[in-house]
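Below is the record:
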Amino acid sequence: MKKARIACVQMDCILGDPAYNVGQIVDHISRAGSASADLVIFPECAITGYCYESLEEASRFAEAIDGPSLQAIAAACLRAGVHAVAGFIERDGSAFYNAAMLVGPGGLVGSYRKVHLPYLGVDRFLTPGDRPFAVFDLPFGRVGINICYDASFPEASRVLKLLGAQLIALPTNWPPGAWRTPKFTISSRANENHVYFAAVDRVGTERGWRFIGNSKVIDYNGDTIAEAGAEKEEVLVVELDLQSADDNKSVFVPGKHEVDRIGDRRPEFYGLVSKALGAPLKKAGD
């Protein structure tokens, strides 16, 4: 299978102006199609913006998954022959989620709702994701989605890897205090799971919050393939051999230094990881 061509769009957006933001997304999808991209990834809440001060304010710009933003993006994906991941605030009945839609030439492929919510921006008012992690089998490879703060929890990436992900897309909105995540965390997530990682941040300022850019694409060894700057809009275009992420064994010195970070797992010792806080623990000898 040929290499997958991935476009990571580090962009600014306008708070509370989905029509403008979707217009920018559609333009980028068109350009990505002209560059023969297979997948275009946009930042967290790229459609709606992020720094809302109440659920009432944010809810005015939230959409159902099949809303007008999806229709416009799906039409653009059809014209360009690409898939796209774009962040937005999803309304589902009386609940509101920080979500990402995955759209292809045939329309909606799937979506993801952010599981881990920090006390920051609109996440202060939203409902945590309520669906299991999932991997989407696309024509060019298997893609899982996390959003921003999810990357701080190693279990999120690990589950996607165990489900077969070759690439994890991470739409994100990193404020200055999150600088360690692009510097350290996402490289560790890629390395420990032997999976490609594409973290796509935004730039610009909303209500005094400056977003730090530094979008990155990491290979399954944890090495940086491409990295954007901190201040300006930028598009990273990379070609990835996604199938190579399935070969989990790393051979550094044949017969002397070989590791398999998936095959060498010992899950029988990890039970504590899945226990809820406050749950009784089984001690040695019990």
Q: What stands out?
A: The chain has a mean pLDDT of 96.
